[in-house]
Amino acid sequence: xxxxxxxxxxxxxxxxxxxxxxxxxxxxxxxxxxxxxxxxxxxxxxxxxxxxxxxxxxxxxxxxxxxxxxxxxxxxxxxxxxxxxxxxxxxxxxxxxxxxxxx
Length: 103
Description:
The protein contains four helices and eight strands. The protein is α+β, with helices and mostly antiparallel strands. The chain has one domain (6-101).
C-alpha cells in the first residue's frame, strides 16, 4: 500500500492520540510525527505505547503489535525517541513515492 501523506496520517492519529505534532516542532528534524508515549491511550482496548512493558506476545519494544500494523498499512512506523516520546516516520520503501507525489 502506498503511504498516506503526513497531514492525513496526523488526522488519523488524532482520532486515537491526544497529542499529535510534528518532529519539526519537537527538535527541528523534518518529515516525522511526534507523539506522547506516556499518555496511556488505547487502541481497541489495549494501551498503545508502554515503554516498560514485558508483554512480548502482544508488543514489540513496548509498542502494541496491532497498532504498529495499522501504522504500517498506512506506510508509517513508530520508534521511541525516549521513554516518553514517540516518533513516526515514513517506511523507507514508501519514502521515494511520497516525495514524488509532491512534484
